[in-house]
Specification:
single chain; alpha/beta; TIM Barrel; eight-stranded parallel beta sheet; 6 helices; binds zinc ion
C-alpha cells in the first residue's frame, strides 16, 4: 500500500492513497486523503477547513492530510499550527487517520499528541529521522511512513520491531511503490 502519493501511479496493480487538497477529491480514485499542507496555509484556512469537513464525508476519503508543521518552509508557525490543530480535530471527529508532514518540529508534534491524546492513528509521512526520534514517536503510538529517502538504521529498527509501518512515493514523479520497496519491506495497509 502506497500510503501517500501526489500522483496516480502508472502501475495499475498499485494500491495507493492519493493526496488531495480540499475541494479536489476525484470520484474515480478509490482511496484519497484530504488536507491543508502546511506550506500552503494562508489566511483562508478556516474556509478551507469547512471544505475539508465536507470532503471527509465522501466515501473514498480514508484519511486527513497531509497536514502538519514545517519550521523550514511555509507561512508563520502560528498559522500552520492553527490549521494543523483544526485538522487534528477533524480527524478525531470523523474517525480518520492523520497523515502528517513534520519538518524539524517533532517536539511540538509530540506535545500535540499528548495534548489531544488522539484515538485515531497518526502517521508521519516521509520519515527521515534517526532511530532515537523514531523510538520516541513509536512509543507514543505514532507510526512512520518511509519514502525514497530515509535513514536505513531507522528503517531497520522499525522493521525489526514488528510495529506496522508504511511506504510511500510522495511527490516523486513516475515512481511506483515497487521501485522503492525492497522484497521484505512492502509495508502495512492502512
Ligand atoms: Zn506529500
Amino acid at each position: 500500500m502506497n500510503v501517500h502519493t501526489h500522483n496516480r501511479p502508472s502501475d495499475p496493480a498499485e494500491q495507493y492513497i492519493l493526496n488531495c487538497y480540499p475541494g479536489t477529491v476525484p470520484a474515480d480514485v478509490e482511496l484519497c486523503s484530504v488536507g491543508l499542507h502546511p506550506w500552503y496555509v494562508d489566511e483562508s484556512w478556516l474556509q478551507q477547513i469547512d471544505i475539508l469537513r465536507s470532503d471527509v464525508q465522501l466515501p473514498n476519503v480514508v484519511a486527513v492530510g497531509e497536514c502538519g508543521l514545517d519550521s523550514v518552509k511555509g507561512p508563520a508557525v502560528h498559522l500552520q499550527l492553527a490549521a494543523f490543530e483544526a485538522q487534528i480535530q477533524v480527524a478525531e471527529e470523523f474517525h480518520l487517520p492523520l497523515i502528517i508532514h513534520c519538518v524539524r518540529v517533532f517536539d511540538q508534534l509530540l506535545m500535540l499528541h499528548k495534548k489531544y491524546n488522539p484515538q485515531q492513528l497518526w502517521i508521519v509521512h516521509g520519515f527521515r529521522g534517526k532511530p532515537r526520534l523514531a523510538q520516541q514517536l513509536i512509543s507514543r503510538g505514532i507510526r512512520l511512513s518511509f519514502g525514497i529517502h530515509y535513514n536505513p538504521a531507522t528503517f531497520e529498527l522499525v522493521r525489526q520491531s514488528g510495529i506496522p509501518y508504511y511506504r510511500e512515493t510522495d511527490d516523486e514523479m513516475g515512481v511506483n511503490l515497487r521501485d522503492i520497496t525492497s522484497p521484505t519491506s512492502s509495508g502495512a495497509s492502512l
